[in-house]
Amino acid sequence: MNRRNVYLQMSSVADARARFLARFPWSDRRRGEDVSVADSVGRVLLEPAFARVSSPTYHGAAMDGIAVRARETWGASDLEPRELAVGEGAVYVNTGDAVPEGFDAVVMIEDVQAPDEDRVRIEAPAFPWQHVRKVGEDIVATEMLFPRHHRVTPWCTGALLAGGVATVTVVRKPRFLVIPTGDEMLDPSELGEGVPAGAIIESNSIVLAGLVTARGGAAFRHDGLRDDVDEIGRVIASGAETYDAVLVIGGSSAGARDFTKRAIERAGGEVLTHGVTVMPGKPTLLAAVGDTPVVGVPGYPVSAIVAFDEFVAPALDAMLGVHREERRIVSATPARKIASKLGMEELVRVRLGRVGGDLVASPLPRGAGTVTSITKADGILRIGTDLEGVHPDRPVDVELLRPRAEIERNLVAVGSHDLCLDVIDDMLREREAGVSLSSSHVGSLGGLKALANGRCHLAGSHLLDPEDGTYNRSWIARHLAGVPVKVVHLVTREQGLIVARGNPRGIGGVEDLTGSGVTFINRQAGSGTRVLLDYELSKRGIPAGDIAGYETEEFTHLAVAVAVLSGAADAGLGVLAAARALDLDFVPVTSERYELVIRDDFFDLAPVQRLLDVIRSPEFARRVEELGGYGTAETGRLVRRSG
Q1: Residue 337: what pLDDT?
Q2: Is pTM beyond 0.85 here?
Q3: 132, burial (CB in 10 Å: exposed 0-12, middle 13-18, buried 19+)
Q4: CB 529 within 8 A of CB 495
Q5: How confident is the model at residue 369 (pLDDT cuts 50, 70, 90)?
Q6: C-alpha span between 216 and 65 (Å, rounded)
Q7: 222, 180 in Cβ contact below 8 A?
Q8: Exposed/middle/buried for 64, CB within 10 Å: 0-12, 13-18, 19+?
Q9: CA distance 374 to 128
Q10: Cβ partners under 8 Å of residue 558, min gap 6
């Protein structure tokens, strides 16, 4: 009989982390090793570093000029200049030269006159130690340069070497064993032309090993293990004897085939926490096998990264003896309402950009398996366990994942998804360092509403007016009344039904979506594609309820195409470029206009003008047309202004 894990007593992140960190004698595992200063960058000192010599080691000239005895220059003036014999009262020196014994000042060469080779003349007195770097001015022999537990930076190496230190004793890198598990996992080394059905490319161990390495540890990746509780238990037990910590990926959830908890118990381990009140990352398991920490890392990529940030990183810092580095916090306004589950802390990945006077946070997809929501994120918005969400009229704290200066240059676009937005972003980054397009796909109507509320610079829209067949005009008048905007034509594009290769269902148009056994995948309410579908259904008198899957929604054209490719749906309305990208067939429905709606008060901003330069370039037209299904004859034309 299958045994299923149950989260009996989930802990908050703070409580689980405190219990985990209090369980282990971290300093007992701290071992030292000597490394050259040249190889010490990023390492943590186990012992303080003391200067062996002073710096400078001699009195040195700080300027080009002449070395003098200060007392012999007193009384010199422009009315009564003082002449000194070269070699006796004055010695020529260059910057860095040792000041000859008995001399105690340097006069800059600009203030020296030379009547002949044997004499110099000065018109102002020098004071003792003028323009002289004295012995030990920077570093005095025996002084402590850096205390224990200091992380060495590149500029630290300069101070160490100046103080005569060639080697330092650093904390040996904590050794982490990373164990991927799961029958469905495909090792990256086995990647060929495709991925077998039911297989998942195992990437978490590579990501976690990289995170360990970047934070100062040493990661060792074990070969993937199948779902065998005895074998997993043996590897955990062996790893606990050899390594400083063990990370077991997958198998920590509540399913019948999630074996990590039982495997740890087979290894003689003690489970400290199984399940934390955080999303993503809820299945995280914290345990001990002897005095070795073991972390059961959830299998979903974003959950795995959250588990590392919240539990593994603090443990690694404790092993090294350094304080946890806190991320910078900024205040931002949500672009729209973000709902959350009461009783769970939720970590929402967001894009950020300055719109007017406010930083605006646009949420990215929230699934624990959407690793791109981390790669594209500018920050993390934490929604507390006592909240059911956040509202656009209340500022929130966001933890930065990127430098603020970079975020300040983001152009914020909210609205309809289109593949050419990625082309714009790529070309902006190429042409204007630091400028990027931060886009959030909430549908055309959502974009217009965000524009009206001042939550974005521009919105992508393709909303059809069923009355006259125009695009966007009536919708802008309705939802942006009193808000001056300019409308710039981006592309015309082919919309149609994306179907499997060979069109096995024989779908010839919208009227065939009601066929027996045909499953549809829809776009979200408020999207221009959804409006187009409803218009086409209305023309044909087809009730939406007659279409199986009408209520199933996706937020991008590529997501619709993937649903068809995977067999989750037989058809979905989307652009030709999405069908081509995944080698699917396409049944044309209409050609439509996709436009950029830009607020007047943002139109003249330099980043907006750079965007317009991009879309008006021949290179943009070429790249977009290569995607398929796009027309660029009017791209970049100012269509109209309103407000």
Answers
A1: 87
A2: no
A3: buried
A4: yes
A5: low
A6: 48
A7: yes
A8: middle
A9: 61
A10: 419, 578, 581, 582
